[in-house]
Amino acid sequence: MASDREDFNLCGPSHLTDLDWANENHQRCVAACLVQGIYIVERDRQLQRQGSHALAHPWWDSFHFKLIRHLIDDADFSIFGAIYELKQDTKTITNVDSKAPRYVVAFRGTLTKPDSISRDLELDIHIIRNGLHRTSRFEIAMQAVRSMATSSSVGASNLWITGHSMGAAMALLAGKTLAKTGVYLKSFLFNPPFVSPPIERMVSNERVRSGIRFAGSLVTAGLAFSRTLKQAQQPQHQQQLQERNLSEDPLKALSLWLPDIHVNPGDHLCCEYIGFFEHRGNMEQLGYGAGIVERMAMQHSLGGLLMDAMGVSNAVEVQEPVHVIPSANLIVNRTASDDYKEAHGIHQWWRADQDLVSNIYLFK
């Protein structure tokens, strides 16, 4: 039996009757609904709902999109994403001042159903271990996003990427990968996981939270500096340093990309983004030295550094954590949530009764 939360007519954004593409709230609602469409199209597949029994298509039809390609995992053959195209006969597509996308690539998060839960949990573990970039699912996603963004017939200015939870991590990593090459995509990231203890929820006292984060930055930066010195003594690493342009700052290269990151303080998976940006600002206010410490700390995972120090990890190449992003438009839903499921859910992002607070953080 289908859940009411899958039916667009029962739980979709009924208030969105006159779509204004220049309205950021409308953009957010549409992006969230397109992600929901991926969840439902996979449920349609699992439950063999076809024809009039299928529930997915209103989630994109209602906004004049058509689904032109499924993105299918090569391990369990589940649908984890899709490419949408705005219908050419839509009036907004002919408006030169319109902010409507021509295409949207969307990714769902973990689906806790028997046909997909095993593979999805495997991907969740890869995120925790900072290894999402090595998975075949991400390779499929990255190829789809890159081919659209760099195509002469599409281009970055006509493309949005969006995702929820694990799908938000995938969209974030794809966006970061392209941003490092100077390609910047409009991005809507809903409840992306922040792989760190949720201090924002665990500690109520603001001063204590700040103290914990400050200590964490010092430890992380110290371990990172120690590993850098150790690696510099290895011949193969010395050659890599010679081939690399040391004047390039990886954070600076990303700083021009400004993704929309949507988080809820009641969601322990993503709430630390709030403290992450606030803490970075506090460190910069302390002066140049503290800013350097934070810059080094934010590019590394404390857990990964500890494992490396204990000899558990011997990987030559170390990827910065997926959640590290120097600039962002952080949208926080301050509406009280009844439970974690509601705080983490995609449905909150198209509702009209939510208390949303937006802050832009620019890397300096």
UniProtKB/TrEMBL annotation:
This protein's record includes keyword Ribonucleoprotein: no
A matching Pfam family: Lipase_3
PANTHER family: ALPHA/BETA-HYDROLASES SUPERFAMILY PROTEIN, ALPHA_BETA-HYDROLASES SUPERFAMILY PROTEIN
Organism: Raphanus sativus (Radish)
GO MF terms, alphabetically ordered: hydrolase activity
InterPro entries hit by this protein: AB_hydrolase_fold, Fungal_lipase-type
Segments crossing the lipid bilayer: none
Protein name: GDSL esterase/lipase At4g10955
Keywords linked to the UniProt accession: Hydrolase
Domain Fungal lipase-type residue range list: 156-184
GO biological process assignments: lipid metabolic process
Top-level lineage group: Eukaryota
